TrEMBL record:
Lineage, opening ranks: Bacteria, Pseudomonadati, Pseudomonadota, Gammaproteobacteria, Lysobacterales
Annotated organism of origin: Rhodanobacter lindaniclasticus
InterPro entries, per the entry: AmpC-like, Beta-lactam-related, Beta-lactam/transpept-like
Domain of life: Bacteria
Segments forming a coiled coil: none
UniProt protein name: Penicillin-binding protein
Domain Beta-lactamase-related: from-to ranges: 2-331
Amino acid sequence: MVDAVVARYHLPGIAVGVIENGQVVYTRTVGETVAGSGQKITPRTLFKIASNSKAMTTALLGRLVDQGKLHWDDPVTKYLPQFRMHDPWVTANMRVADLLTHSSGLPEGGGDLMLWPEPNAFTRADIIHGLRFIKPGYSFRAQYQYDNLLYVVAGEVAAAAGGASYETLMHREVFAPLHLDRCQVGAWNRDTVGDVATPHRRDDGRNVPIPEAAAIPAITSAAAGGIRCDLTDMLSWARNWLVPTPAQLQWLSPQQRKTLQAPHMLIPVSAQRRAWDNSHIMAYGYGWRMADVDGQWNVWHTGTLNGMYSMLSLLPDRNSGFVFMINGEADDARTVLGEVLTKHFTAPNDTRDVNWYADTLERKSKQHAEKSPLPDTSTWQAATTTEMAAWTGTYRDPWFGDITLCPQDGKVRFAAKKSPALTGTAMRLGKRYLVHWDNGELDAWLDFKPAADGTPISLRMAKFDPDGDFSSDYEDLAFRRVGGCP
C-alpha cells in the first residue's frame, strides 16, 4: 500500500506506523528529508504534524481540568478578560469547551490569514483582538465550520490557567510525562535537533523544497498546528490512547480521555464517505474527529501545513490504528492511504486498492474542473499604473491591518504590512483585477467600490479558485482606503 501511494503520487518522503492490538507491528520510512539530497527519512525524522497538534492542545487542557485549574464550562473571559467575539452575547457565553468544537459562528477558516502564510508579524494578542471584527458565518453552536483561531485562544487559556506559556506547558505537561522526547514546539534549532524533514511543493512534476532557516522561531499558531514530532513519538502518542499504561492513566484521567474523544458537534457526512465507508454519523470531539466506518468506531485527525500532510487514526474498540506523515503536497495521497489502511482493519476483504481510490478521486477532480472551470489566465496582463490610478493607496481592514496597492517599477504592487509573504502584482483579466502573489499563494480577486456619500473607497477580495484552501479567507476582509501611497 505504501509503495503504491508513493509511486502514484511521487511523494518526496513518508513515515508510516501501524498498531494492531496495542502493539506496533509495522513501521516504514521511504524517501528523503530533502528531495535529491540522499538524506533518508528515518523513524526519528521530525515532521510538521499540523492540525494533529490540536489533540495535544486539548490533552493539555484536560490535564489542567484534572488539576482543578480550569473547567470545560468556564467562560473564556474568566481567563482572558480581553476576549471578544463579534456578538457580545457570544462573548459572554463562550465556554472553554466552545473553543474546541468548530461551532463558534466563525466562517470556515475565518481569520486564518493572521496565521498563514508564514512568516508573519501577527501575535496571539492580535488574534484575540481581531476576533471581534470577524463577522459570523452562522449562529453560535448551530453547525460545524472548521477554524484555527479559537485553538490559538485555547492555548492562551491554558497559559493563563497553567501559569506558564503554552510552549512551556506543552513540554512540561505533555511531552515530558509521555516521553515524547523528539517532539518540538516553540523556538528550536534544526541543526541542533537534527533529522528534520523539509516541506515540499509540487512544481512542474517535481518536488521542490520549501527552505527553512536553521533557527525555527516560536509561531503564533502553535496550539492550532505548530508541533513537530517523529514517527516513534507519534506511535507512542497513539498507543497512549489505545492501551494506556497505569502511569498514563494517572497522567490523564479516564474521564478526561472520554470527554476529549466523545462527540460534541455533528459534522455532515459526505456522499463520498457514505459510499466508501458506509458511515452514518460523523462528529467532532475536542481535537478529534470521529465516525462509524464499516460498523466500527473510528477516531482520527489530519494535518495540513505548507508542504506537509499527516494523519493519525485510531480504532479504539480494536486497540489498533495507524499514523503517517508526508513532507510534500499530498492531499489525495493522504486520502487514499488513509482509506486503504483503514480498510485493512474494517473491511479486510475489500478489493478496492490504492489505484481504485486514486482513479476515483482523479475522475471526480476532472469532472469538477469540467463543470466549474477556472477563468483562462492566458490573456491576463499586469495592470498599468494609469488604469489603476483611481484605486491605488493604503487600505485598512480592522483585523488584518494595512495593505498598500501602489506603483512600483511600472506595475501596481500589493503588499501586506504584517504578512510579507502576501506581496504580488495586480493583474487585469477581462474587466476584473486580481493579485498574483510572488510566492505561489492562492491568487485573489480585487473588487473595488468607488467612494460615495463621503465613504472611502472600499476593497473586497475573493479566492480566484473558489474551491481553494479555506485558510485563504480573503472573503472575510473588508478594506477601506485610508490614505495614499507612502
